[in-house]
Design a protein that fits this description.
The complex is a heterodimer of chains A (289) and B (445). By secondary structure, chain A is mainly alpha-helical. Chain A is 52% helix and 7% strand. Classes of the chains: A mainly alpha (289), B mainly beta (445).
Chain lengths: 289, 445
């Protein structure tokens, strides 16, 4: 178990730094230093292990949250919000029970009741991990979902389908499968298999844009939201491609120095040409002697 | 460190090299080595040059005797080369110098860069012949018709000239970068080690060498460790050790088989799991291995510590000394600025009672094995008045910094002492900073 407490540099930075060192070593005078590159690859392996562990933990947490939210929504659909107080109390209790710790957002939304439009919809800043502020100052979801360069979307916010006003209904989760590098979006019960990361983000964004337009009841708000979303996704995109390149390169190292790394499930769809080129160059560099 | 009647004190003796703060890369010292008597001290630098200093012994009977090392010979050992086949530049930096035991009036040493080892003969010339029959003094040939008599040329004294000539060139035997050379106690053979292989040479034969260790895997992608240093046993000509980047040392016996891939002994200390970090593999990589003079122990240097091993005990070292444990929390920054890859060397004193190694901020450390004491000293121009006693230094790891202590964050990581050498008999040490060579002696009471 690697202790990451020693410094504030996280696994991702270490991966970038290590890759930079390997890249620079190729132009160093005297040729590639086998010993140094071997040591750097060990750091890369260690950082990658921590990084993947963190990602899987996050995905697991999000999946748990998503399941919880799905149950909450089902309950909500069965019991419309205009109940008398007695029933509402029962509702809250049962929801709180089912939502558990993730219930903070869910519970907060329900507590506001039908009186206020609880527009908790997050626009499709699915990629950046940023989020539009919750309109009525409800408690923000746990910060663990908002990592920099996060590849997965924060969990979809439950939108109150019965509220007047914005009535934005977006219920989507984006998950990146690290083994197959396939970005998957679950939206309004429809599963969208986006293509590989890198290309995926853009097409996913477009898809979401279209879907969002269909489900909004209030036409006026559509342009606003879509504009916001597109803008957010644009600036998030460069982050995303950086990290997707890093994840590609991580997968490359899955096939290089294989003695160092545990065997992984077949890596499919390494679709970036650049990634393939660096793989070839790296292997060539090692056996250049 | 206790000598007779109290602690040993070290005094400044000399410093060699430019005073400039602006260090030319070619002047960076890359190796330091005393010869077997200690009379000669050789340094190699990044520019491929070897400088040899000789100890001038003026009057040993006087109690305030101070021996000084003065330049004896300077020559260009290696030049930069280009491997056209692989499109690789071969650095001229001298990685190691090893002296041969003296057999006659001349001195011999082996010097190596990444790819080629050379045997140099350093000889003195203090006479020259005069009175040739067929040649003029300037070397031009006389017209034979003008010669009317014959005479025998005579040798007349001249100013001492020290000549260095390459006697052997041992090339094309290493695919990877040579990190070590070691002369065998039989005085006929020596070994050279690169990242993956160790070769055995005969000093007289340059077109052939025997491969005795090969750890290259069939598939390079399965590479997990490299050879970092190798050395022959000081007395047993069949025994040598090599260290690896994984922190292990293997002792091999050449009588067991021609190819010593299978070790006779494996020295390894299990890793402390509580210290596990991203950089565990880097800091456990051994940068130097040295046998004690008596051949019973060996010392290894990894990034943070020095370990003494008893050749009869493989499962753990008998002694471990922390060189700069305060750097353990800084490994991340040291990784970013590449300092974590620095290869520190270590050395024994003449009677194996004290070991020495370098650190950062031009500090170097000595560990007295018997007295269980250690000291940190500094090589700096500020402390370089003749016979000035070196004051012990202390690094403050955290908390309140006392007077005269230096905090970890103030350490200059560009000032590193990687190479040190100890005179084989006396308490004289040579410490190399980036481009200066400091010579310290113990205080003569």
């Amino acid at each position: 178990m690697i202790s990451t407490m020693e410094c504030s540099v996280d696994a991702q930075s270490l991966i970038s730094i290590s890759l930079m060192k390997i890249h620079n070593s190729r132009t160093q005078r005297g040729g590639i230093k086998l010993h140094k590159n071997l040591l750097v690859s060990y750091v890369l392996r260690n950082a990658r292990q921590v990084y993947i562990k963190e990602k899987y933990a996050e995905i697991y947490r999000m999946q748990q949250y998503e399941e919880v939210m799905t149950v909450c929504n089902e309950i909500q659909e069965l019991n419309p919000l205009d109940l008398d107080a007695e029933d509402a109390d029962e509702e809250e209790q049962s929801r709180a029970a089912c939502c558990g710790e993730e219930g903070s957002v869910c519970g907060a939304a329900l507590q506001r009741g039908a009186a206020q439009p609880a527009a908790l919809c997050r626009t499709g800043s699915a990629v950046s991990g940023g989020c539009c502020p919750l309109e009525d100052g409800a408690k923000d979801p746990e910060p663990s979902y908002y990592r920099s360069c996060c590849m997965e979307a924060p969990p979809a916010a439950p939108c109150d389908p019965f509220s007047a006003g914005s009535g934005a209904h977006c219920n989507k989760t984006t998950v990146l499968d690290l083994d197959t590098h396939v970005v998957t979006t679950v939206e309004n019960g429809y599963l969208h298999q986006d293509c590989c990361c890198g290309q995926g983000a853009q097409s996913a964004a477009k898809k979401r844009k279209v879907e969002f337009g269909c489900c909004v009841s209030d036409v006026d708000e559509v342009p606003d939201f879509t504009r916001k979303r597109a803008k957010r996704e644009d600036c998030a995109f460069s982050d995303y491609t950086d990290t997707s390149n890093i994840s590609n390169l991580i997968s490359i190292f899955g096939s290089g120095f294989s003695g160092l790394l545990s065997r992984q499930a077949d890596l499919e769809q390494i679709c970036s040409k650049q990634a393939l080129a660096s793989l070839g160059a790296w292997t060539r560099a090692i056996v250049a002697f | 460190m206790a000598g007779p009647g109290g602690d040993m004190q070290w005094c400044f003796s000399q410093v060699k090299g430019a005073i400039d703060d602006d260090v030319a890369e070619a002047d960076i010292i890359s190796t330091v080595e005393f010869n077997h008597t200690g009379k000669l001290l050789a340094t190699g630098d990044k520019g491929g040059r070897v400088v040899i200093f000789q100890q001038e012994i003026e009057n040993k009977n006087q109690p305030q005797f101070r021996s000084e090392y003065n330049v004896y010979s300077t020559f260009q050992s290696h030049e930069p080369e280009f491997d056209y086949l692989k499109s690789l530049e071969i650095e001229e930096k001298i990685n190691k110098i090893r002296w041969l035991p003296q057999k006659n009036a001349a001195q011999f040493l082996l010097s190596t860069n990444d790819k080629t080892i050379k045997l140099w003969k350093i000889s003195e010339r203090d006479k020259r012949p005069e009175g040739y029959n067929l040649k003029e003094e300037d070397g031009c040939y006389k017209d034979p018709n003008t010669i009317t008599s014959l005479r025998v040329p005579v040798l007349i004294p001249m100013d001492l000239m020290v000549e260095a000539s390459p006697r052997r060139v041992f090339a094309n035997a290493h695919t990877y970068h040579i990190n070590s050379i070691s002369v065998n106690s039989d005085n006929e053979t020596y070994l050279s080690a690169d990242d993956l292989r160790i070769n055995l040479w005969h000093l007289e034969i340059t077109d052939r060498s025997f491969n005795i260790v090969d750890i290259k895997p069939a598939n390079m992608e399965e590479l997990t460790e490299v050879i970092t240093a190798a050395e022959f046993h000081p007395h047993q000509c069949n025994t040598f050790v090599y260290s690896s980047s994984k922190g292990t040392i293997r002792l091999c016996d050449m009588r067991a088989s021609a190819l010593c891939d299978k070790h006779s002994k494996l020295f390894e200390e299990p890793e402390d799991p509580s210290n596990r970090s991203f950089f565990s593999e880097i800091i456990s990589s051994i940068s130097d291995v040295k046998f004690s003079h008596n051949g019973r122990y060996m010392m290894t240097r990894d990034y943070l510590s020095v370990k003494i091993w008893d050749l009869n005990m493989e499962n753990r070292p008998v002694e471990t000394y922390q060189v700069h444990e305060y750097l353990r929390s800084k490994l991340c920054s040291l990784y970013e600025n590449d300092c974590i890859f620095d290869k520190f060397e270590c050395c024994w004193n003449g009677n194996d009672s004290v070991v020495m190694t370098g650190s950062y901020n031009n500090f170097f450390r000595m560990f007295d094995r018997g007295q269980r004491r250690d000291v940190t000293l500094e090589a700096s121009r500020e402390n370089s008045k003749p016979m000035q006693v070196l004051k012990p230094r202390k690094v403050c790891a955290g908390g309140k910094r006392k007077k005269d202590e230096i905090s970890v964050d103030s350490l200059d990581f560009n000032k590193k002492i990687l190479h040190t050498a100890w005179h084989p008999q006396d308490n004289i040490i040579a410490v190399a900073t980036t481009n200066n060579l400091y010579i310290f002696q113990d205080k003569v009471n």
